[in-house]
DNA sequence: ATCACCTATACTTTAATTATATAGAGAATA
DNA sequence: TATTCTCTATATAATTAAAGTATAGGTGAT
């Protein structure tokens, strides 16, 4: 039994005659007769009662028609689903997001979702080392990261935006409430909660060096390993932190804000990173090539 | 997309390589490569990641395989169902049963059901004229009847058994409780409930003629048009009736029994009747050809 | 009885599929 | 590094399946 035989058969049923079906199918009449005969032979069943007034279904033919119609359209739907996966409009993309890139990741994801609502997005927030390991293992397809990680050699990166690194504080811990920019000497006695990320980025070192140049070492009351914790500490009044400025957007209306430190102009790039070696599904291709 | 392409594709997936699949399919390797390529071309999708270590599925290929396996076995199941209808082991047979043939119909139906449990039996009990009309209209496929109806010309009949026509009575209405066979004179003053079936069978007439020969006419207190009603009347003590003897089996343990009338040897045949002209489904063929 | 219409078969032509032979790519081994 | 092995892809020939053409046979209508 072939799909073509089923299609011919259904056409004959719907038109009520082989001749009419052959016209609809744009083929001659004998091939239709022949395929029907082959089908009957294979099934060992008469599908039609032949009469001069056309072809009437037998019981077996009735059953074949009812099931066959669905069967044919099932194939078309099946093909359509596979096609959709091929063009990437359907599928799954597995993403890792570094907390500090959330302000860049979210608009990107929103725009992508609007463009390709059929693509499922799996999103994991974590530390850069873990995310990179999962990317290389193939568990993740792309990462929202900060530029400059050692392990990102061999990865493709696309810059999504840049942040000035600024001092993050609350009104209570602001070392210079009366000024928009904080002179570096004001940091002398300010407790600091710095992000320690195995030196993924050097801007904490740069800040400390600047302080040293000014003749003091700030008191680092806490070194934490993830941005959300640093933010929590800042919000709770433990001290100030030194982070990409847009991070404050992840906790809006929470009394946290950012100010530049005079003479310190460190900068950080938020990037989308992925591995172009190895197999990449159509939806992943689509995701990394996407421009919001 | 053809079934063959799907089968080749699934074989490649299961064997992990085109070469191995071609061996399993008993064809050369190039045709398999080619059909896969055609499938990919039609779907506009890469289904495999080609590597020297074999063929690995892409996301689209994964989806096609999961759905394709089911799709292929669906076709096999579909064909099997149609085949079953063709051989008659599945399907529907619509039957008409004359009440007085119930003792013959029931064992037949029980045996057929045991042999072909997949065949649905639709059973209607009714008057012979109605049943014959429905048979000719095609609403019924076969009838359990009494032989000798005028309208059965052109029908095939098969005799299922014969009944002596006997007097049906209860202990209270028995005209000769002391005898096993009733002398015809005893019917002189006995009220009778006779079945009037538009003279479908002549045995009532035969009985009345015999009475007339004996010099009397029995009192026919009721002429009813269906056997169950006649039976009800007999059971209620309205009178006796004159029916095929095995009819008493349809109301066992009800106090009804049959006795011969001396000198009256009418006989009736229970038959299975059907029309061999026109379309007859495989299960109907099976039913009429069946021997318990 | 002839005509019109429909299906089935015989035969030819065309298209699709398969088989054979072979090239090219990547991993394994010496 | 060169060699060998294995696997896939392509070119071309052979085969097989499908479609087209012509026509016979059957049934109902004019």
CATH class of the largest domain in chain A: Alpha Beta
Going by CATH, the architecture of the largest domain in chain A would be: 3-Layer(aba) Sandwich
Q: Percent of residues of chain A in beta strands?
A: 25-35%
Termini distance of chain A? Answer: 49 Å
Average pLDDT value of chain A? 88
What is the succession of H and E elements of chain A? HHHEEHEHEHEEEEHEHEEEH
**How many individual domains of chain A?**
3
Provide a descriptive summary of the structure in words:
Two copies of one chain form a homodimer. By secondary structure, chain A is of the alpha/beta class. Chain A has three domains: 3-85, Winged helix-like DNA-binding domain superfamily/Winged helix DNA-binding domain (Arc Repressor Mutant, subunit A, Orthogonal Bundle), CATH 1.10.10; 88-161 and 270-289, Periplasmic binding protein-like II (D-Maltodextrin-Binding Protein, domain 2, 3-Layer(aba) Sandwich); 164-267, 3-Layer(aba) Sandwich (D-Maltodextrin-Binding Protein, domain 2). Helices cover 40% and strands 25% of the residues of chain A. Chain A is built from nine helices and twelve strands. In chain A, strands 3, 4, 5, 6, 7, 10, 11 and 12 form an eight-stranded mixed sheet that branches. In chain A, strands 1-2 form a two-stranded antiparallel sheet. In chain A, strands 8-9 form a two-stranded parallel ribbon. In chain A, a hairpin with a 2-residue loop joins strand 1 and strand 2. In chain A, helix 1 crosses helix 3. The A-B interface holds A 1-4, 42-46, 49, 56, 58-60, 63-64, 67-68, 71, 74-75, 78-79, 81-83, 85-87, 91-92, 279, 281-283 and B 1-4, 42-46, 49, 56, 58-60, 63-64, 67-68, 71, 74-75, 78-79, 81-83, 85-87, 91-92, 279, 281-283. Chain A binds a DNA duplex (30 and 30 nucleotides) through helix 3.
